[in-house]
Specification:
Blueprint (H helix, E strand, L loop, with lengths): L1 H16 L1 H13 L3 H16 L5 H19 L13 H18 L5 H12 L7 H27 L9 H13 L4 H18 L1 H4 L3 H15 L4 H5 L2 H22 L2 H15 L4 H14 L7 H18 L4 H14 L9 H8 L5 H29 L4
Helix pairs in contact: 1-9, 1-11, 1-13, 2-3, 2-8, 3-4, 3-5, 3-7, 4-5, 4-18, 5-7, 5-17, 6-13, 6-16, 6-17, 7-19, 9-11, 13-16, 14-16, 15-16, 15-17, 16-17, 17-19
């Protein structure tokens, strides 16, 4: 729970120092001369920040959505003028999908990832060396997802303008207005790099991730990059901290009372009675877990309600524990692309009116098939190679 709280404080630092905007604009300046290149540039910047900015909603809605919209409008793509198809629809879709992939790539990519590990531990599945294990499991399917996602969007929502010559100039103008890196940006960047390094090597150096995060926050407070007033006034951070703590407590009580195991056993018995072996049962359970997100307007609510029973169902029907946990963990990030209300950032992207309701639902189904095919197929091969099962 402390890691979840500290994640929001670090996200505040990216915004306050301007380092997040600087990274994003620098990548756009280098890669933004074509519409597809611009999409990859924004996605790359998003992926870099995901390693150390654990609030996917803050990362997507507060950093990258405004940048994407400003670049689109600078290129003459504006829903108010009926020109959103020029490049804005495609770029907004790519930016939104990028958050799903980056949230899977790193344990620190989304706040609910920490919650998932806690819930998995509650039913007896502990993930060893969580930061490195998570990244190792996600890196191959994640890289392929990063490379292919813009191409899927290009086919679904092809931009009318294939080139964006104004994007690098817009990014350069904004960087010039920002000026050289400030001392706060340099300090914040160094502290973040230190934390990411220690998180990645936590099993070998023996420093728990939460200790690394607390030390990083201490350095930022002592240097004045982040003040205690910044932390105390972050109502979203404290609200998430309290709600997550309550959800963990309720999940623990449901497990203690035996309700989770009872529910999982009942459904598992029906799956086994139907004659399904481990592999078909895995697909049925994973698909059901994903598609039921049509009924949820929050990833955290979905995870807190259903993660534990679905993990147990997979295990009881023959799926290895780590495979079950990682499969449902990645699905818990990827299903944010399903509907216009699937996550906190969905409302922000949908409200920009670059993507219509019909386009959103169509893309949700297409990306469901794409993600489940890509992550399951490459994951099965890669996880076998690294010995995850």
């Amino acid at each position: 729970m402390w890691l979840v709280l500290l994640a929001f404080f670090f996200a505040e630092g990216f915004g306050k120092t301007g380092l997040g905007d600087r990274i994003a604009l620098s990548v756009i300046r280098l890669l933004g001369s074509t519409t597809l290149g611009l999409a990859y540039g924004i996605n790359l910047a998003e992926l870099v920040l995901a390693a150390a900015m654990p609030s996917s909603a803050a990362r997507a809605a507060a950093v990258f959505y405004p940048i994407t919209v400003s670049v689109a409008k600078a290129s003459g793509s504006d829903p108010a003028q009926g020109t959103h198809k020029k490049c804005g629809t495609f770029l907004v879709e790519c930016t939104y999908q990028a958050t799903a992939t980056s949230s899977c790539m790193f344990l620190s990519g989304a706040a609910q990832n920490y919650f998932i590990l806690k819930l998995a531990s509650g039913v007896g599945v502990d993930v060893p060396s969580p930061f490195s294990t998570w990244f190792t499991a996600a890196c191959v399917p994640g890289v392929l997802s990063f490379l292919l996602t813009p191409l899927v969007a290009f086919a679904l929502m092809p931009p009318e303008a294939k080139k964006t010559p104004d994007a690098p100039q817009t990014a350069k103008a904004k960087l010039d207005a920002m000026g050289p890196m400030s001392d706060d940006e340099k300090v914040f960047g160094c502290v973040i790099l230190m934390m990411v390094s220690l998180w990645a090597t936590s099993s070998s150096v023996g420093i728990p991730p939460v200790v690394t995060a607390l030390c990083g926050l201490t350095l930022l407070l002592l240097s004045g990059v982040i003040t205690w007033d910044d932390c105390a006034s972050n109502t979203k951070a404290w609200g998430t901290y309290v709600s997550f703590a309550c959800l963990v407590g309720m999940a623990s009580m449901l497990n203690t009372l035996g309700i989770v195991k009872w529910l999982a056993s009942c459904i598992t018995a029906k799956i086994i009675a139907a004659g399904f072996s481990a592999l078909p049962a895995f697909f049925i359970i994973l698909t059901s877990y994903w598609m039921v997100h049509y009924l949820f307007a929050s990833q955290v609510a979905h995870v807190s309600s259903l993660f534990q029973p679905f993990v147990l169902m997979m295990i009881q029907t023959g799926t290895p524990g780590l495979v079950a946990v990682m499969s449902l963990a990645f699905a818990s990030n990827l299903f944010m692309t399903l509907t216009p209300y699937a996550s906190a950032q969905s409302a922000v992207f949908f409200g920009g009116k670059y993507i219509t309701t019909g386009e959103w639902y169509k893309a949700g189904i297409v990306y469901f098939a794409f993600y489940i095919g890509l992550w399951v197929s490459t994951g099965a091969i890669w996880w076998k190679i690294i010995g995850l099962y």
